[in-house]
Design goal:
The complex is a heterodimer. Chain A is of the alpha/beta class. Chain A is built from eight helices and twelve strands. In chain A, the strands form three sheets. In chain A, strands 6-7-8-3-9-10 form a six-stranded mixed sheet, sandwiched between helices. Chain B is an all-alpha fold. A two-stranded antiparallel ribbon of chain B has the order 1-2. In chain B, α1 runs antiparallel to α3, α1 runs parallel beside α15 and α2 packs across α3. The chains are: A alpha/beta, B mainly alpha. At the A-B interface, α2 and β6 of A face α11 and α12 of B.
Chain lengths: ~270, ~350
């Protein structure tokens, strides 16, 4: 699990995170929700150990994140970001192999190579392993980044080792096929002793994939729910400043949300 | 064309090319040598063959003038190739090279400061090991100039191409003006030679400069080889590299140090040679791979080959005079530079390749 205790962060005089104490659940898909500027990305940076908060501490299990060496931390947690552009052309395989960098010194082992192959297989990019990364579509590029991240914290069961996967709006700018694919693959990791913490913007997608929900607003953690049904319409309307309507999928019975500004009665409100 | 070869095979090809270039460079010039003559003179100089008095002139030219020049040229080419690779990795941009980001111009200014204002200027020039002050001053100013360009062109972990170019122009202009002023007020005729500072020349090469550049290059190169993985990771951006266990701040600092050590010493010895550092990694990426684990050793080899060839051209094109090295590198390199720049701006503007 990821334990945050009294985490506050400020830049100059601006408070970005305000005294957050919470725990991301082990082997669960934890989702951070909140409007733009709520401090979600900063919270994720703090939780990944990239950013040292002004106050408070972060622990993985019972160990302080700041006590890990950079390499040890890189073996324990991986982060998938929104969209990674490459300054130069490398092959899909070379990019994926970067995930193994924290695991070898000068020459990758046979096991490293094997993990790269399996990670590419898992995301369905093994056939394109020789292609140059910049020639791929945005969706395919993100699949390769996912493979890289999977390779970084690959758990083949040889040693019981808990890992952490952080997703920083990974599906933004992906079409719905790639979104679903990415999150399906990520969820598959939960079976392999992994904790997932994700920032997702699409609330319906978030409710579909998340197990635990952390709602942020203006630098504070305002609500934690272990079931999407526990997130009240009031809360969502207040935090996101929209009109929300919950409707039910007649086939599955799942709740689906539609949103509008003010009480226009129409979904997908008009931007102002 | 080398796409199907392994990295190791590519190194062998480049190594053989370098061997041939070195032999050719040793043989060709105002004083030409046949291979048999070169073997004989080398044998005599090493004491394996009895010294023949009639060979004294040829032997002295080969051992005292030609060979140091061949080695200085090769080492300088290797320095510039590796430096271009390191700087392109650091700035995450293929238009970068030590001449652009201020390292060379800063190093020249540092060297000129000691040359002209320091005591015993003539001594400092002819005996580089006798005066480490010149390369050290070159290091300090070269480092400061590169650091400044990097700081100005980087914001929030990404490099802006236009800011980079403008910062490079400004820093190079200031350093160039300083060097120009110093060479104008210099009493030493050699330090007054503005061609040396701005266009580079190997005519002053001697065994001491071979030693100095050789040692600095050797140490820096072995050190730089450790950063292959980190430079690859940095292609993804500073944050992604950090997530892979790289400390970007530390990496950037060390890259600047390693790079400046090599470039400062080479510049203090032979002057500013532009565009080699730009062309070498570019050609290698097109021929083979952008993997820094490959680029670092390969750019040393190809840089040395290219510089030997350029030096041969400089010696034979307008005999008995010599063309400054920088004129040839500019003719070859500037079009490549413009080509890369054009492609980059076309593909999507200033922030690209950040």
């Amino acid at each position: 699990m990821v334990d945050l205790r009294g985490v506050s962060h400020q830049v100059d005089r601006t408070v970005i995170l305000n005294d957050i104490t919470t725990r991301f659940q082990p082997n669960r898909f934890n989702v951070i929700l909140g409007p733009n500027g709520a401090g979600k990305s900063t919270l994720l940076r703090v939780a990944t150990g990239l950013l040292q908060p002004t106050l408070g501490e972060v622990r993985y299990g019972d160990r302080l994140v700041s006590s890990f060496s950079a390499t040890a931390l890189a073996r324990k947690r991986a982060v998938l970001s929104q969209h990674v552009e490459l300054a130069f052309a490398l092959s899909v395989e070379d990019v994926t192999l970067m995930g193994r960098y924290p695991h070898y010194d000068r020459v990758p082992s046979a096991r490293d190579r094997d993990i790269v192959r399996r990670a590419l297989d898992l995301v369905g990019m093994h056939d394109k392993r020789q292609q140059q990364y910049p020639t791929l579509s945005g969706g395919e590029q993100q699949k390769v980044q996912l493979a890289r991240v999977l390779a970084q914290i690959w758990n083949d069961g040889s040693g019981a080792r808990h890992t952490y996967l952080f997703l920083d709006e990974p599906t933004t700018s992906l079409d719905v096929h790639y979104q679903i694919h990415l999150l399906d693959v990520a969820r598959g990791l939960l079976k392999h002793d992994c904790t997932i913490v994700a920032i997702l913007h699409d609330l319906n997608i978030a409710f579909q994939y998340g197990d635990v929900f952390f709602v942020m607003d203006a630098g504070r953690l305002v609500h934690v729910a272990t079931d999407a049904a526990d997130l009240s319409r009031d809360l969502i309307e207040r935090v996101f400043q929209v009109q929300a309507h919950r409707i039910h999928d007649p086939d599955t019975g799942d709740a689906v949300w539609r949103f509008a500004l003010e009480s226009s009665g129409r979904s997908g409100g008009t931007g102002s | 064309m080398l796409k199907h070869l392994s990295f190791r095979q590519t190194y062998w090809i480049l190594g053989v090319a370098l061997g041939m270039a070195v032999v050719a460079s040793a043989a060709i010039g105002a004083f030409s040598f046949t291979p048999a003559q070169m073997v004989r003179y080398l044998g005599q100089a090493a004491g394996w063959l009895p010294a023949v008095p009639g060979d004294a002139l040829g032997r002295n030219v080969l051992i005292g003038l030609r060979l140091p020049r061949v080695f200085v040229a090769g080492l300088t080419g290797a320095v510039l190739g590796v430096s271009g690779t390191l700087m392109q990795g650091l700035f995450r941009n293929p238009i970068v090279e030590p001449g652009l980001v201020g390292t060379s111009a800063g190093a020249a200014l540092g060297a000129a400061l000691v040359f002209v204002l320091g005591s015993g200027t003539a001594l400092a020039f002819t005996h580089p090991l006798g005066s480490l002050a010149v390369p050290m001053a070159a290091f300090v100013v070269g480092f400061a100039a590169t650091m400044l360009v990097h700081r100005v062109s980087t914001s929030f972990g990404t490099v802006n191409v236009f800011t980079l170019l403008l910062a490079g122009i400004a820093v190079n202009a200031v350093c160039g003006a300083g060097t120009g002023f110093l060479s104008y007020i210099a009493r030493d005729p050699q330090a007054r030679n503005i061609t040396f500072w701005n266009l580079g020349t190997f005519t002053t090469a001697d065994w001491r400069s071979v030693e100095l550049i050789g040692v600095c290059f050797g140490l820096s190169f072995v050190w730089a080889l450790r950063y292959g993985k980190a430079l690859n990771a940095l292609m993804l951006g500073e944050n992604e590299a950090a997530y892979l266990g790289v400390n970007p701040r530390r990496l950037i600092l060390w890259l600047l140090v390693v790079n400046t050590i090599m470039v400062a010493v080479a510049t203090a010895m032979v002057g500013v040679i532009a565009f080699v550092g730009l062309v070498i990694p570019h050609v290698l990426r097109m021929m083979k791979s952008a993997d820094y684990n490959f680029l670092l050793p390969a750019s040393a080899l190809l840089g040395a080959v290219l510089m030997e060839v350029i030096d041969i051209i400089a010696r034979v094109i307008i005999p008995p005079a010599e063309l400054p090295i920088g004129i040839i590198t500019a003719v070859v390199g500037a079009p490549v530079f413009l080509g890369i720049l054009l492609r980059q701006t076309r593909r999507g503007g200033a922030g690209l390749h950040g």
